[in-house]
Design brief:
- This is GIY-YIG nuclease family protein.
- This protein is α+β, with helices and mostly antiparallel strands.
- Strand 4 and strand 5 form a beta hairpin.
- The radius of gyration is 18 Å and the shape is globular.
Length: 181
């Protein structure tokens, strides 16, 4: 079933009750951010799916532990740092990221309609280390992003195919540091 504004509102209210005001929501997709109003802290932007499926709420309430979303347990889980090559629809590009699932499960959950090839998949027992490496890659490579024609969850972490070898070398160098230090 495709999510529409009514489905989103029903799911959001089921998860969050009357904590939030949804009067400014301009719903388009589960991944396009909408304006949600916290009755205590005001407006914030969030992806609809993150709001109901991940039970995320007001970022200011998160600091006080009121929203029901806390980073620590997620950060502490074992993580996989991955790099995938996608092709199809006349496109070819790369995507990197961190997941606590198997990479194949991440692709299925993200409803990605491209063909794929996993170029790099490394497991980290310390989830924060994987996230730290992902942040370094983002700061270096997201200056040259690729925007796929078919949007999907995580499509903001896509890169031009032409940097594949540079990125693989960086990942290899990072992994050598991981094993030696």
């Amino acid at each position: 079933m495709r999510t529409n504004v009514n489905t989103f509102l029903a799911r959001a209210k089921e998860v969050h009750g009357d904590k939030y005001d949804y009067s400014k929501v301009d719903y388009q997709t589960t991944e396009k951010k909408v304006i949600i109003i916290c009755k205590e802290h005001g407006e914030f932007l969030m992806r609809p799916r993150a709001h109901y499926a991940d039970q995320r709420g007001c970022p200011n309430c998160d600091k006080t532990g009121k929203s029901g979303f806390h980073k620590s347990p997620w950060y502490e889980k074992t993580k996989r740092l991955y790099l995938i090559e996608f092709s199809g629809n006349g496109e070819r590009f790369l995507k990197f990221g961190v997941t606590s699932n198997k990479v194949e499960e991440r692709i299925i959950k993200g409803q990605i309609l491209y063909q794929y090839k996993i170029l790099f998949d490394e497991k980290f027992s310390d989830g924060e280390k994987a996230i730290e490496i992902e942040k370094k890659l983002k700061s270096k490579y997201l200056k040259i992003p690729y925007v796929p024609e078919m949007s999907f969850r995580g499509s903001s972490e896509c890169l031009e195919f032409g940097i594949k070898e540079h990125l693989l070398k960086d990942l290899k160098r990072i992994m050598i540091k991981k094993t030696s230090g």
